[in-house]
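quick one, two chains, predict together pls
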Amino acid sequence: MRKSIANNVALNIKPIKKFRTIKIQIDFLRPLSKEETTTRRLLANVLSNSTKHYPTFKALNDREMELYGSEISVYTRNLLNFNDLAFSVEFADPKFLLHDPNQLAENLNLLGEIVLQPNLKNDSEFDDTAFDTEKRNLMSNLASVGDNQDLVSILGLTSLLYRDNPDRQIPIFGSIEQLKQLNNTDLYKHYQDVIKSDAVVVNVVGDVDEDEFTKVFMDSMFAQVLKNNRQNLSIEFENFDKLLESPASKEDHKHLNQSRLAMAYLTKKLDTSYSRLAPQAMNLILGGDDQSQLFLQVREKNSLAYSVSSSYQPISHLVTIQAGLDAKTIEQATDLISKQIDFIKNDKFTDDQIVHAQKVLDTRREISSDSIQHYIMRSIWETVYSKSLLTDDQFKVELDKMDRKQIVAVAQNMSEIAQYRLIGD
Amino acid sequence: MAEKLEKYSKKLKNGYEIEVVPLPGYNQVYGLAMTDFGSVNTRNGELPAGIAHFIEHKLFAKPGYDVSEKFAEYGANSNAYTSYTKTAYLFQTLENPYDNLKVLLDLIQNPHFTEENVASERGIIDQEIQMYLDMPEWVLEQRILGQLYPNDPISQDIAGSSESLQQINKDNLLETYRQNYRPSNMDLVIVGDVDFEKIENIVENSDFHGVTDILPPAKQIFEPIGAGGHETMEITQGRSAYGIRIDADVSMPELVKLQFELNMIMEILIGEASDNYEKMTNLNIIDDSFSYNVVAENNYCFIIVSGSTNYPEKFQEYLRKHLSFNELKDVLDEKRFERIKRDAIGSYLFAQNSPDAIANQMAELYFYDVDYLQLIKLIDSISYDDVLRVAEQFITDDNCTYYNILPK
């Protein structure tokens, strides 16, 4: 069931009986802005630290335990050109418990506490302990980013890709420089603006009755707050034309055991005569699983890497490749990677590889629906950008439509636009 | 309609235990073969470190083909992993579950180690080792285990080292495989919509090649716990670990119960809902990376408490002072105990959303003579007094140690 509560406030209920848990998620969305990225991440952390009626981290965790280990999660992520501040609670379906049949209302109430009943010091600031603790925690997390070499290499590549887009230059989890400047009053102001202005998508998935949940939700503290109309979300797509003309590259050196290579390729947007799944099939053949060219040639045949893979991002039309390598063999590996792309460009792959790619695409789609999060993500995309989704019938048509020529065309129209190397000395 | 889980199981004549769990509404079938053999099983260091992990990698190779290709042909994706005490092989598929089961049996039953394929795998595993050596959390775990169990195989990287890889060859791989891979040492779990009789038939008609006489288990004698230590690494944030070794002489099912009891003790003393967590946070000794892990596997039972910290000495001092029976006595009451139990029951239900969690937990528990479906009863059987008794017996000053990794 899909219901519009106000302009850009959607309530989606997906009753599914197969799960042992029920999940309620509320996403607050607004355009990405570099000035707000760190603020929103800190806000997520402060709001999940404590609430008005559970005024310490301990009290809030005690409450989650009482509700049979309910899992509260608050985080930010990139979704298209938006910053998505997502709040969720997942809890045990009461029919599997001997007691406490009121799980739904109690957990919705707990989520309401997190989103709408913050732990305040006064009418313009969050509680000092909550603010200071979470600011310190985030500072510590940001300082640790440099110790995660895979992340460092992804961030290195991302920074090259979005060198002309300042809003994307700050990682979604924020920056130390911005965090240092953030004060409690400004954070609370941002919170008030989020609650008032952000577009909102509410999702519930699990064994719930649509009418019953709607009634409980509309009787909850959310109803009053979410009845106001919100700003429209205007979708903007990335443009990598400048990088096509002048690809970006960067090499950093660190005292590491293993070097990391991260590359990005832009695929050309194909016309509608092509299957929408052709780029994904090309990616699967290139580096999408353990039957791919990169896995078989770079890892298995030449023993150059333990991890080497590629992935495709349909919205940005980017194929990215990542590998962990010995510094001495990085040139050899880069050359081998290029040869695998040429292998597809030159139509050297077998029919079996196409059949395998089709099968994997179908399998991954079906298996993903065995997870509760799949339904929530699908519903968010349906609300925000429904064009990105295929129905089961459309998926089948696109899968059948795909052929060798299309896969070759994707590879032939693919250009390297960025390369980041983290060399272990 | 989601119903309470059911299980069909049987010990077959050829020694295999099979367990099948239907999961109505799910699209996938998940198959798992687990053997009671992991990185610590080096016969007190007679075998090179990393040999179990090497077997896991190289069992996929067969004459003229790789098993992952066969899985792919039947529409499955496959994987494998090695832990300290177990090795597991798995597939996940929408179609052909019986063919994929046959491929899984081929995978675990027919080794094909050659000089060439062993040599080429060394380079791949060496890269895996290098990758982990760049991860401070992973290095810290190895080091604290080195303090808890000095000179024991558990303190070595599961994948071994660049040096130990050189000592692994086709002969010791085959001999080690034969010693440890046999039906009576394995558990097979299938989760999903399958016919039990067909599964039984396929497994009953399969057999291992070259099962050999089994050496008696190597006697394990642990050295005294180390005094602690530290090292530097090129990192921005320091990491600290505090370890507790539990030398408990208990039966396998009791070991599982002990693991739950120790988890409850840790949750009460330093979990996110504890006073200590709050105090350590306010004292700026820990950040939100702080966590603990209780491991109870075969002869090993230990607790590792770890996290990022800028004050490693205060971190250690605080834990040494507050992880105690006396503190537990002071903070534990019936209400808190009931909350902890509810949390454990919730975790059990959460895991049942996931076929892979069900299969892996079920197989793991099989080796401890515990039925996964009876886990709630086991949790429920733990009393307030049990928790106090375990804390009094095992959370003492003389079985703990530490390790710090500091920024250069």
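The longest strand of chain A covers residues 21-31.
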